[in-house]
Amino acid sequence: MKAAAIENSRSRREELGQFLTATPVANFMASLFGPLPQTVRLLDAGAGAGSLTAAFVSRCCEKRDGVRAIEAILYEVDSEILDSLVATMRDSERLCSGAGIRFSFTIHQTDFIHEMSPRIAGDLFDALPPQFDAAIANPPYRKISTDSAVRRALRSIGVESTNLYTGFIALIQRLLVPGGQLVGITPRSFCNGPYFRPFREDFLSHMELRRLHLFESRKAAFRDDSVLQENIIFHAVKGRNQPRELTISSSSGEQGGNITETVFPFADIVHPNDAEKFIHIPSTASHATAKETMDGLNSSLASLGVTVSTGRVVDFRLKDALRKVPEHGTVPLLYPCHFNGGAVHWPKLEARKPNAILDSAQTRPWLVPSGVYLLTKRFTSKEERRRLVACLFDPDEVKAEWVGFENHLNYFHANGHGLERTLAVGLYAFLNSTVVDQYFRRFSGHTQVNATDLRTLAYPDRDTLQAMGRDMKTLDLSQDEIDQLVTKHLHARR
After folding, report:
1. Helices in 248-361 by DSSP H: which ranges?
2. CATH number, domain with residue 194
3. Which pTM value belongs to this model?
């Protein structure tokens, strides 16, 4: 295929939210299914070229565990891939014939959500929804707007979803018979964050998790696509009783690559009293150790008298007020590019971003009075060592009466004003520690750090944070020195 054709195909897939499953990943997903009935009614919603159904068929033919018939129902809206999908199903038909398994398939070139939502809702003139014993899914990944037809269709059956992939999974689970199995590969983002809370509540109320699998590389599952999200594979069974233990595994995603497995108490994955229903996923021993440490902390930002907010300045809305070079009548405007070794380097004239913003009646509501603030990046690159990157804004170093924090920053403050210095430095040490980074990675699979994520963290008490702040004589410490300082004070409080 010529380069232009490949690029057009990739662009079309991204428009549809379609990321095709690599064969090694599809085979691994199929291997996760437990015992199946003699006749398996299989659902593959968002089938693509059919690699998932083909892998499921291969598993049944090789395992020979009593499956006598497979009735596959597939949904795919992309007309350009239908010929490949049909060819894959014909191959599966021949494979089943050789194994003594009856195979039939039906391909629906219709939108899965728009077709199934009214049937599940029981609309008067729609046929009853089908039921399935097994589903294997790589659903499309794309945000859906509040007023879209897809969002309205999902709401008609009581599903609140901000993304196609969670909408697909919510529908699929409703089509499974009791004890029916679902193996899916999706972004990990549903595991945390306020937007996915309704989905987590719904999913955990109707599906019993049996296995969670992570990839060591962010690119492992979809090598040919620009996927920034970490992806996760899960195996779940239709039912209401979560297991006492859950297997967490990880691999490189390569064919024949080593798979590591660890069994954890389910209560370590979804904390029993967590109203948010965050799904914590420890993939290394350090993640488990980080959880133990963080579980010993019982202070919240509110109890510390501290708030964290998203930077107020949305630059494109105040474009006329921005200045590349500071001038009379302007105040500092800070971006992530102004972070420099734990402190703010301002102005940064060689940067592409503005360095200042006019101080006027129009802009004043978006500025904050000068003071000591702790800043964190809302977005980190995949290459950065830490997911959480904190920096101190020191008014002694950047002289101004007011300051602007751009929207790609979070800032910690005390009721809209600066923090007490030793408390701010203590928070700086804590948030830049490895233990907090490892804990954050347990429940966040993306590079975004929102103010809500920072509010849900547990923190040391005020005395401990201030002791850290007094002990930290300079911000320019190595990672090991920060970790030693934080560990010393966390152990001292016990």
Report:
1. 266-269, 285-295
2. 3.40.50.150
3. 0.68
